[in-house]
From TrEMBL:
InterPro entries: LipOase, LipOase_C, LipOase_C_sf. The keyword Protease does not apply. Pfam families: Lipoxygenase. Gene3D superfamilies: Lipoxygenase-1, Domain 5. The keyword Transmembrane does not apply. Signal peptide: none annotated. Residues 1-133 form the Lipoxygenase domain. This is Hydroperoxide isomerase ALOXE3. Keywords: Dioxygenase, Isomerase, Metal-binding, Oxidoreductase. GO terms for molecular function: isomerase activity; metal ion binding; oxidoreductase activity, acting on single donors with incorporation of molecular oxygen, incorporation of two atoms of oxygen. SUPFAM superfamilies: Lipoxigenase.
Length: 133
């Protein structure tokens, strides 16, 4: 569970932040007015008045960009730059895990090639081996 939380779940929550929240109406971190309390009360003008000012919008977009940016030293899930295990059965487990991740990556890439908007955030090639914020 810890490995899943520190890799896959983190990627699911983190990697798409800029893509989904840089358009501030999708997920603003701040509203200037309270949201409507019942259906049918919203108008374009009331929506625009509730959104943050341009300065805060730029700050939020920059923050989302920084949080979801891929680092230059990113290590994908299942990759181990330093050899930490010497036992043959552990090395085989790592190879099997890497083969399964490779298969899943190919399947996800194939599925995404048929979608109008691909969802690549959980492709093993895009998932960091651990949390890096």
């Amino acid at each position: 569970m810890v490995i899943f939380t520190a890799s896959v779940q983190h990627a699911a929550v983190n990697n798409g932040q800029f893509d989904f929240h840089s358009w501030i109406p999708n997920g603003s971190l701040q509203l200037q007015k309270p949201p409507p309390t019942s259906k049918g009360q919203s108008r374009m003008n009331s929506l625009l008045e509730a959104l943050p000012n341009i300065g805060d919008t730029v700050k939020f977009a920059a923050m989302f960009w920084m949080l979801s940016d891929t680092y230059t030293d990113m290590v994908p899930l299942g990759e181990y730059p330093e050899e930490r295990f010497s036992e043959p059965h552990l090395k085989q487990m790592i190879k099997d895990f890497q083969a399964e991740l490779s298969y899943l990556s190919e399947e996800i890439s194939l599925r995404n090639s048929k979608l109008p908007v691909p969802y690549a955030y959980l492709n093993p090639k895009q998932v960091e081996n651990s949390v890096a914020v």
